[in-house]
Fold this protein.
Amino acid sequence: MKGEFGALTKNLRVDFHTHIISEDFPDLAAKYSDDRFPILEKTCSCGAEIKVKGKTFRKITDNTWDPEKRIKDMDKEGVDIQVLSPIPVTFSYWSDPQAGLELSKSQNDFIASIVKKYPDRFIGMGTVPLQDVKLAIDEMERAVKELGLKGIQIGSNVNGANLDDDSLYPFFEAAAKLNVPLFVHPWAMLGGERLQRFNSMYTVGMPSETALAAGSIIMSGMLDKLPNLKVCFAHGGGSLPYILPRMDKGWEVWPDTRSTINPPSYYAKKLYYDSLVYDTENLKFMIKRFGTKQIIAGSDYPFLLREKPVGKVIDDYKDISEEEAKLMLGQNALEFLGLNELVRT
C-alpha cells in the first residue's frame, strides 16, 4: 500500500515521543513584557539555550530545530518516522489566553511546515491554549482540519487543575467527537518546590506528575462518558503501573467516592503509554498491566534522558513475539494517530 509515507510494511519503526522547536521561536517575553515566556537564544550556529526568567532552562543543539539533522540521526538509528510535538515548557498555560493562542498557532504552523516539507519522515502533533477551553477547541480543529496535524499534546495539569477538572471536560469531549488523539506530557510538576536538587524534577517529579494526570482521568469517570477518547501518557505512564493495585484497593474500600463503574485498572488498559522506561523489567511489568497493544515506542529525542535508539528496550526484551514487537515499534503509533490505513496487514 502506498501513501504519503511510501510503501509501508509492518516493520516500520516510529518514534512517537520527540520534541521540536522553531529556530525562529517568537519572543513573546519581549512582546508582552513578561519574562515567564520561554525564549530561544542562539549561542552558535549549532546550538542555543531556552531561557525562562533570564535563566537557562535547557541547552539544545541544532537537531532540536533542524529537520535535516534529525533525518540524519533517524537514518543512523534506523528510525523511519518521527512524531513531532512541542517542548512542554512552551505550554505557557499561565499566560493571557490570546497570547497563549498566538504561541500555539506559531508552533502548530511550524510543525505543519516541517511535515509538509518531509511528509515521508514526520508526523505532527500540535498544542493548544488550555487556559481557555473554547480557544483550545478552536485551535485543535484548525490544527487537525486545516494544518493536517494528527494529534494534540497537552500538559499534565492546567495551572494546578488536574485533567478531570470540570472546566476542561468540554475539551476532552471535543477531542473524542473529532477523533483527535491526545498525548499527555508532564509539566509544572507536583511539589515542584521540593524538586530543585539532583535534577529531581525530571527523575522523580515527572513520573509522579504523570501518574496523577493519568489517575485523574481514570478515576473521574471520563472514560465511561467518552469511551472513544484516545489518550497516551509519556514516560510509560510514570509511576502509574506500580500504584494501580493501590488505586483499585481505594476504589474498593471507599465506594462513596467512586465516579466509575469499574475499578481503575480496568480503565488503565484502555489508555496508551510510550515505552520510555529504559529497562526490560519495567517493560515486562507494563505489558503485564496493559498489554502490548497499548504501548508505543517513544524516545524523548533529542534530549539527554532519551532512549537511543528508540525502541531499544523493546529490542532487548526477548520474551515477546516478533509480531508483538512490531506492534510496539510502529503499528501502535500509527493506529493511535488514526493512520491505520498506512499499516499493511
Notes: The two ends are 10 Å apart (CA to CA). The CA atoms of residues 211 and 240 lie 5 Å apart.
